[in-house]
Write a structure and sequence with these properties.
This is Chloride channel protein. By secondary structure, the chain is mainly alpha-helical. Helices cover about 50% and strands about 5% of the residues.
Length: about 700
């Protein structure tokens, strides 16, 4: 949210630095104008109305410039840096290596774009981009650095393989969560629950060690910044929203409101995901920069105009009548010793706004109308903001929106509940997180680490489970929706029921492209140019074997390396293992996120096209295979659990061709399977669908039961 306080004439003429030493860029922009005597005379002559329009113009222009800059570098320099990056990290750890998601260019745009986008007053957060940033740094280590920018280290080559790189990305993502929320244990659990598709026991202590180092480094910089010269960094210590209180209690009679919070959070969360999917679908036809400009202007108008709807309130007693000293309650246009509760939410950092809502013993701080206005605006602005092509996350905005509606529910319950409004705000955040992200264990631990209150643990667990269950009855979590919209083939951890009715041979399609053990260069070049396959079976036929047999599997990347070397054979004979002596291990290392090798970049003479290549030394002689009669569900489990890219299907009888086909990730996707066998549509997993009459019936019964209990 916004960082500027537009109060009365005295507050604008104040220092450009706040009480924490944070220098506000917008105030610095206004200060030369204010210090000019001629400007002051003109200011006073034109009256107060001109002052407000000038302040709004500077405010809206600054937001617009910052957001357009973030959107421009994302759209034209590195589109892979857009959004939070968590869906892309999930896809990579599931086996989808999308281009440029971990490149050095993406990392630079992610960092710069996140800073400018969050500074543009958009209703977004920085937690998601920090997860992607940590994964990018780890992936660059796994690639040995960047050859393109001459940033390489020889000792990093030991990690240049798929397994170690995947582990490093997992560890880097957990470190990003730990840095964003100062929650080391929550970072490990977040990577385990939401990101990683494969988990090894060694990853637990490695991730835990990394997040512990993150916590120590954060503590070090927080101690250095205690003098206040680092802006808002480090405020609140490692506990961001400390709500420890000896008077915070709850009883069995408080469970109905908690259950109600969970149900409402689930409904709001699934509707939030539905609307966000529509906004993301609309992003294509509209010019990206134009959309960013429209959203920025709408946000500026809402942030600057809505606080005028709130009335001034006396400063709370805990501030001893001195609101400005806390820097959390804003005067806006109020008299001294008064504050504007809506401006205190809009014109504050997200952290301070959440801290205000979480504070216990503040049941009378906010007017109910303020909670309604801020909740509606926060809900809508969060959806619109995520449609902009810029690097930012939605974790913190969801926490803030959930805390607002939690406070609103507490106000509406009134005397029917003894729960503190700050406690209900925390439960509201948990329920909204459960309804949108559908995570339970990691979110629960992160909230406990954020608030430093173990007393909340049972209630947070209950709210998360209820909201997730309710929301799962309607649609998918927001990350799965984004994965579907981006077309990334993410494999779920379970098999659909119809897969048990099919065999592996039932989904094999297309003509199978194979190579002989010794193949002509012209045939290899033709197949590589006319197909996009990444692997090909190698078949030995007479005279190299008595009958056709499967020798192994060769990758397109390895074929390109051999073709570039141009170590060809003049006749159709085996070269033996001596062919490998002309290559080194680095030649076959997996390329990074930069430009990949292409068959179109290699030129061949007519004489070379008639020569031969011995495939045997470069083939994987022990590829994973399944019999064509194996259940498709079992084949999916093998494919996902082992982390395969290609699964060969072999015939059940020996009097047929040695290979029936190759199963890839695409062959296990529901769209492909149901396209081949549409009669299986009725066997899909069905989400619980509520009819309007049934829903209204149960809702009416629940309301009557709740009224009777209270």
């Amino acid at each position: 949210m916004c960082r500027i306080e537009v109060a009365n004439h005295k507050s604008i003429e104040g220092s450009a630095s706040d009480s924490h030493g944070y220098t506000n860029p917008i105030r610095l922009l206004l200060s030369p104008l204010i210090e000019n005597d001629l400007f002051n005379q003109d200011w006073r002559s034109r009256g107060r109305a001109h002052k407000y329009w000038t302040a709004f113009g500077v405010f809206a222009t600054s937001n617009l410039v910052l957001l357009l800059f973030a959107s421009a570098i994302t759209a034209f320099v590195s589109p892979a840096a857009g959004g939070s990056g968590i869906p892309e990290v999930r896809a990579y750890l599931n086996g989808v290596d999308a281009p440029d998601i971990f490149s050095l260019r993406t990392l630079a745009v992610k960092i710069i774009g996140t800073i400018t986008a969050v500074s543009s007053s958009l209703h977004v957060g920085k937690a998601g981009p920090m997860v992607h940033t940590g994964a990018c740094v780890a992936a660059l280590f796994g690639l040995g650095g960047s050859r393109k920018y001459r940033l390489t280290c020889k000792w990093l080559r030991f990690f240049k393989n798929d397994r170690d790189r995947r582990d490093l990305v997992t560890i880097g993502a957990s470190a990003g969560v730990a840095a964003a929320f100062r929650a080391p244990v929550g970072g490990v659990l977040f990577a385990l629950e939401s990101l990683a598709s494969w988990w090894r026991s060694a990853l637990i202590w490695r991730s835990f060690l990394t997040t512990a180092v993150v916590a120590v480094v954060l503590r070090f910089f927080i101690d250095i910044c205690n003098s206040g010269h680092c802006g808002l960094f480090g405020k609140g210590g490692l506990i961001m929203y400390d709500v420890t209180s000896d008077t915070m209690t709850y009883h069995l009679a408080d469970l109905p409101p908690v259950i109600l919070l969970g149900v409402i959070g689930g409904v709001l969360g699934c509707f939030y995901n539905f609307l966000m999917s529509k906004v993301l679908q609309m992003r294509g036809p509209i010019h990206k920069l134009l959309l960013a400009a429209v959203v920025s202007i709408i946000t500026s108008v809402c942030l600057f105009g809505l606080p005028w709807l709130a009335a001034c309130r006396p400063c709370p007693s805990m501030m001893n009548g001195d609101c400005p000293s806390s820097n959390r309650f804003k005067r806006f246009q109020c008299a001294p010793n008064h504050y504007n509760d809506l401006a205190s939410l809009f014109f504050n950092t997200n952290d301070d706004a959440i801290r205000n809502l979480y504070t216990t013993g503040t049941n009378d701080i906010y007017h109910p109308l303020t909670m309604v206005i801020f909740f509606i605006s926060s809900y809508i602005l969060g959806i619109l903001s995520y449609g902009v092509v810029s690097p930012f996350g939605l974790f913190v905005p969801i926490i803030l929106t959930g805390a607002t509606y939690g406070r609103l529910v507490a106000v509406l319950l009134g005397s029917h509940s003894n729960l503190d409004h700050g406690l209900v705000a925390i439960l509201g955040s948990a329920s909204f997180l459960g309804g949108t992200l559908r995570m339970t264990v990691s979110v629960c631990v992160i909230i406990v680490e954020l608030t430093n209150n173990l007393l909340l643990l049972p209630l947070v667990m209950l709210v998360l489970l209820i909201s997730k269950t309710v929301a799962d009855s309607f649609n998918h979590n927001i990350y799965d929706i984004i994965l579907q919209l981006k077309g990334l083939p993410y494999l779920e951890g379970h098999a659909e029921p119809y897969m048990r009715q099919l065999t592996a041979g039932d989904v094999v399609t297309g003509p199978l492209r194979i190579f002989n053990g010794v193949e002509k260069v012209g045939n290899i070049v033709h197949i590589l140019k006319t197909t996009g396959h990444h692997a090909f079976p190698v078949i030995d036929e007479p005279p190299f074997s008595p009958s056709p047999i499967l020798y192994g599997l060769i990758l397109r990347a390895h074929l390109l390396v051999v073709l570039k070397k141009k170590d060809f054979l003049p006749t159709c004979t085996r070269s033996g293992e001596k062919a490998l002596k002309k290559f080194v291990a680095d030649d076959f290392d997996k390329r990074g996120s930069g430009k990949q090798d292409s068959i179109n970049d290699i030129d061949f003479t007519p004489e070379e096209m008639e020569m031969f290549i011995d495939m045997h030394p470069f083939s994987n002689t022990s590829p994973y295979t399944v019999v064509e009669t194996m259940s498709l569900a079992k084949a999916l489990m093998l494919f996902r659990e082992v982390g395969l890219r290609h699964l060969l299907v072999v015939p059940k009888s020996s009097n047929r061709e040695p290979v029936v086909g190759i199963l890839t990730r695409h062959d296990f996707m529901p769209e492909h399977i149901l396209g081949l066998h549409p009669y299986l549509m009725s066997s899909r997993w069905k989400r619980l669908r509520w009819r309007p009459s049934t829903l209204s019936k149960y809702l009416r019964s629940f309301v009557l039961w709740l009224a009777h209990r209270t």
